[in-house]
Fold this sequence. Notes:
alpha/beta; Rossmann fold; Four Helix Bundle (Hemerythrin (Met), subunit A); about 15% strand; RNA-binding
Amino acid sequence: MSLRLHNTLTRTVEPFVPATPPRVGLYCCGPTVYDFGHVGNFRTFVFADLVRRALAFNGLVVTHVMNVTDVEDKILRRLRETGQALRPFTATYIDAFLSDLASLRCLRPHHLPRATDHIADMVRLISRLMERGIAYKAPDGSVYFNIEQYRRSERWPGCACRYGQLVHIDPEQQRASGRVSADEYDKDHVADFALWKARVPEDGDVFWESPWGQGRPGWHIECSAMSMALLGDSLDIHLGGEDLAFPHHEDEIAQSEGAGGLRGDLHGKHLPFVRHWLHGAHLLVEGRKMSKSLGNYFTVRDLLAKGFDGREVRFLLLSAHYRETFNFTLAGLEGARTALARLDECLGKLRERAASHGGPAPAPVHGLVEAFQEALNDDLNVSRAWAVVFDWVRDQNRALASGAMDPAAAAAELAAFGAVDAVLAVAPDPAAGASVPDEVMARAHERVAAKKARDFARADALRAEIKALGWTVEDTPAGPKLKRA
RNA sequence: GGCGGGGUAGCCAAGUGGUAAGGCACGGCUCUGCAAAAGCUGCAUUCGUCGGUUCGAUUCCGACCCUCGCCUCCA
């Protein structure tokens, strides 16, 4: 079965076919770097990583782009509060973000463009919109996108000129939200959004020159400019959190298709800005919407500080389908630990059994890989994929226990798991637990001797000492095994 | 008010017009000097409520209840 993915544009699960196979351009809305990312943010980034790995698993060659928003209201506010300069401030959080991403075993995107490195691209895009008469400079000096004009525009290649493609919105039906009052703005219509924000005193020295005066780019224009600069005018896949569908992504479509072929390479085809939109659902933490006041607000580093491993967090985040709200809990994280330990145990036994296999690397066994792929390709049904993996674990354990597993078979099963783990990325780190401290090892040896002498009191005392050193002993038929507690 | 998700065992969570995956927790067993760990194994006559369609519905349709999200810069 080939890969099928839900498309927000059509609201159906449809086959995913790149414009120019096997190459795939994947764009993902990245972080705004003013703070450490929380588990909710990282659910989306792990989801993006899953999409990327699933594409690669299906033989596609992915170019993964994730933007970094490093100029924005909240950032400017933090600069004012802390007196720091933009670059050093954002660099801190970009580093933290990359480190968190790595701890969750997410592959690093091939490109991580920063907004402040692409101001020229944004200015060019806005100029194009001005030329086409679908953007205007307001009395406050800012430039806005004119949604009414856009909807009335002549169609040009690649432009549906339709506002409300992702969320079915009838502009006439919208009531003014309490958050925004129309008369605070100089724009013609409340729905019009800023492309370029005129410099105001609070911005300090954060501003750029533009044909419309000093200022900074609006948020939406960032993704349009950077995605097209790196991936061309029509992207295969664009993804982000569900909250971004409107207005952020809707505005991106309007700007990008409105600018229509910024670089003139639409190949004469009427390609949309994005062919496949993917949106990940949010998560709840301990059954509630995450909030600092409820005490259920966790950054990735908070979880690591509680002693959880990045792969445990990854496992939990990947345990539910991406379009479902997921309830992330600490108990779930404990469960993830137990489940992974069982997987680790099975893999460890397979490795032991495979160790004496000397021949050429065996081909992966197909049962696991094919069943896994079928689940994965069904709109990334990870829950089903895990069921496949754990069924496999039980089967391996049975075969191992009954002695029906020969070294070549074990090696082949391990190869199969390796293929699957190229997507899941939860296999134990081979380096972890490799070196047992001498003091622990010495006590383990002494305990073996004590047991042999049937001095069980001494043996139990040694076990307690080993435990105090942070290790546990397990007696197996092949002798004692040491594990980190 | 508009738009859109959900309600499946103690918890998390798949799924199908034909009689409920998987994980965690829990019980039993094996192993063990005892443990621990591990393994095996058991664990929803039932899928929010009430109607309807059907030989048959958790799955389709309708109504209702509950819950969550978005509605202009929140992943």
